Amino acid sequence: MTVSLTNTSGRCLVFVLAHETYCQALGDCRCEVEQGRRARRTAKSLTLASGLTSPALDDAVLTIPEVVRAVKRGDLSVKRHVPELPKPAVVATRAPTTTSLAEVIRPDVKAKKNKRGAS
Q1: What is the pLDDT of residues 48-93, one digit of tens each?
Q2: pLDDT tens digits along 11-35
Q3: What's the Cα-to-Cα distance from 24 to each of 5, 30, 34, 70, rounded to whole Å?
Q4: For residues 76 and 24, is the Cβ–Cβ distance under 8 A?
Q5: Angle at the Cα of 49 (from 61 to 18), degrees rounded to 5?
Q6: What is the DSSP-derived secondary structure letter of residue 101?
Q7: Would the pTM of this model clear 0.70, i.e. be above it?
Q8: CA–CA distances in Å: residue 67 to residues 1, 81, 83, 98
């Protein structure tokens, strides 16, 4: 599931997407590994200017303690994006047939058909 965060405070907000919280909650490392810094990760960050809404983010961003505190303070609002349910396939059916009352009451007896010109 994805979420969007909107900065409702009057100032710029920056959140560090720490490996220990964000990447582990996500189940995939999103940190940058620079050359010359073996086995050392540089965490990414999320910067939101005042009044700005982030693009769709993984809901793992809600595990970051600073984000949780900002939501509780009212500095951030969270909007969840619910995926659309797949629409059921349309099944072609035959046109419904009409049944006369005589067929319902006595299905073994066929109703008489009127012939043209017969009185």
Answers
A1: 999 999 999 998 999 999 999 999 999 999 998 887 777 777 666 6
A2: 999 999 988 888 888 888 888 887 7
A3: 20, 10, 20, 21
A4: no
A5: 30
A6: H
A7: no
A8: 17, 18, 23, 64
Q: At residue 15, what are phi and psi to the nearest 5 degrees?
A: -125, 130
75 and 11 Cβ atoms separated by less than 8 Å: no
Higher pLDDT pick, 95 / 36: 36
Pairwise CA distance, residues 108 & 80, whole Å: 61
Q: Can you list the alpha helix ranges (DSSP code H) found in 29-84?
A: 65-73
CB 46 within 8 A of CB 61: yes
Q: Are 66 and 15 in contact (CB under 8 A)?
A: yes
